[in-house]
Amino acid sequence: MDRVIEKKKWNNRRIIGLAGIVLLVGLVVSAFYFTSGKSKLNVDTEKITITDVVKGSFQEFIPVNGIVMPLTTIYLDATEGGRVEEIYAEDGTFLKKGEPILRLSNSDLELSLANQETAVFDVLTQMQNTRNNSEQNTIRQLNQLAEVDNALAEAERLYKLNKLLYEKKAIGSQEFKSTENNYKYQVRRLKLTRETLKKDSSSGKQQVSQMQESYSRMQNALSLMRRKVGDLVVRAPVDGQLTSLDAEIGQSKNKGERLGQVDVISGFKVRADIDEHYISRIFTGLKGLFTLNGKDYELRVRKIYTQVNNGRFQVDLEFIGAVPQGIRRGQSLQVRLSLSDETQAVLVAKGGFYQQTGGNWIYKLTEDGSKAYKAEIQLGRQNPDYYEVLSGLKPGDKVVSSSYENYGDNQELVLKK
Fold first, then answer.
1. What is the 3-state secondary structure (H, E, C) of 18-81?
2. CB-CB contact of 288 with 336 (8 Å)
3. pLDDT tens for residues 253-283?
4. 33-91 residue pLDDT tens
5. Measuring CA to CA, which residue among 109, 124, 55, 99 is closest to residue 79?
6. Same domain flag for 314 and 354
């Protein structure tokens, strides 16, 4: 006898199919949930940094490393090259202006000096000989002038006498013409002798003057040569402390090579290196602050060196008011250089969040502190401690300021204690 078999409503195939549909729907819902901006991540509060947004005094400044330097430094360069023969002062010695520091030797320079001295002596001898010859020639010319003048006087006497006799028919015309011609000759001879004496005198004076000028030039050259030889002894240009002396006995130094420096210990300045990013914002008069032995000291930018090397440029800062006691050359200082005046602003502490957000958003805590969600913000100026908040946060808000490196794109953080 046949029996009716009751059909099962929930067989294995139907159950598996239904489970697949539920799983698929779950995946779709999950995908929609995570792509809809409502993704969440559980975070342990002990592993993050939560800070308060506050309103307070804000001043934009940058930390720079400064080196204490003398107010004035004079460099010692070798004016002339040579071999180091003697060293009179050690590095760190306090010197008076003109005190010798070291002595160089230069045989070529010393030989040139000897040759120059010989040449000057030769010119001086020639000038003296020329002057003596000129004087002797002048004496001879004067003697000749005296003889010519005497001959003219005698010729004039005879000419006048014979003229009177000729007019009285006492002598013939031949004898009269002879004395007349002799008289005229002596007149011309006297004139020529005087012109010759004048020219010789002028020529002699000009020759002596030229030799005097030549002698003066050679004397100047000799003085210059003596100074160059004298520069082989390097002396302190001012009162101060000798530092960075780089010379050893027997060492050869080239012309222009740095030998050391003399620091004028009348005061100090601070030289600081600054990133070229700030070059357009640095100007003379900006103030800085550093702390030494628990006390704050002020500085002011005095000079800016606009040349950029390896992405950095330098500035000189002068002390405002008291200089710290016991400060020394080469000492390092941590200077906070102000880029703006002090103002009131909404502030958020610096933290690792900026590396992932670029300052465009931050995780802001809810009022009960159980969650933190993404909030768009706008940041302005900054200093080593704070960012200036322009919008998106208000005083009293709490934010996660530590790094977001492991948070992915989660919109909310569920804070677990």
1. HHHHHHHHHHHHHHHHHHCCCCEEEEEHHHCCEEECEEEEECCEEEEEEEEEEEEEEEEECCCC
2. yes
3. 998 899 999 988 788 899 999 999 889 989 9
4. 444 445 888 888 888 999 999 999 888 888 999 999 988 889 999 988 899 999 999 98
5. 109
6. no
pTM, entire model: 0.53
Name the H helices within 258-392.
Answer: 353-357
Do 91 and 121 belong together in one domain? no
**Residue 217 CA: distances (Å) to CA of 116, 392, 396:** 11, 83, 87
Looking up tokens 């006048």 gives: 160
**Which DSSP letter does residue 96 get?**
-
For tokens 């002028």, the residue is 202
Check whether residue 112 and residue 225 sit in a common domain.
yes
Question: Is residue 20's pLDDT more than 80?
Answer: no
- Sequence-distant (≥ 6) Cβ neighbours of residue 380 within 8 angstroms: 345, 387, 388, 389, 390
Q: State whether 308 and 361 are in the same domain.
A: no
How many other CB atoms are found less than 10 A from the CB of residue 303? 12
d(CA 250, CA 245): 15
Quick one: 92 and 157 in the same domain? no
State the number of CA atoms in the 13 A half-sphere of 237 facing the CB: 14
The answer on 205 and 313 residing in a single domain is no
Beta carbons of 94 and 101 less than 8 angstroms apart: no
